[in-house]
Specification:
A two-stranded antiparallel ribbon has the order 1-2. The chain is built from 2 helices and 2 strands. It is mainly alpha-helical. Strand 1 and strand 2 form a beta hairpin. The relative contact order is 0.11.
């Protein structure tokens, strides 16, 4: 019998190629909304970026902060109860 990773079992004992993994998801109850988490991350990334000298790392942090702000705004917009129609 082949060595299998922990939590794995053979689907067909005669076939050693297919392995079925039984992984357990690490579920956590979120205490903040997605928008709050994105805004918090953006704020912290912007603070860290402003503490760095100009360079690639600073630009990447500022870019990620901007992406998270845009995502937060889109999430707010998509979760709005009523979408205004164009042309009405």
């Amino acid at each position: 019998m082949p060595n299998l990773p922990p939590g794995a079992s053979l689907i067909n004992p005669e076939c050693t190629v297919k392995v079925q993994m039984t992984a357990k998801r690490n579920r956590r109850k979120q205490t903040q909304s997605l928008q709050e988490r994105l805004a918090t991350f953006a704020e912290k990334a912007r603070e860290r970026a402003l503490a760095l000298p100009p360079g690639k790392e600073r630009e990447m942090l500022l870019q990620r902060a901007k992406q998270n702000e845009v995502t937060s705004n889109l999430t707010d917009w998509l979760s709005a109860p009523v979408y205004p129609r164009r042309g009405d």
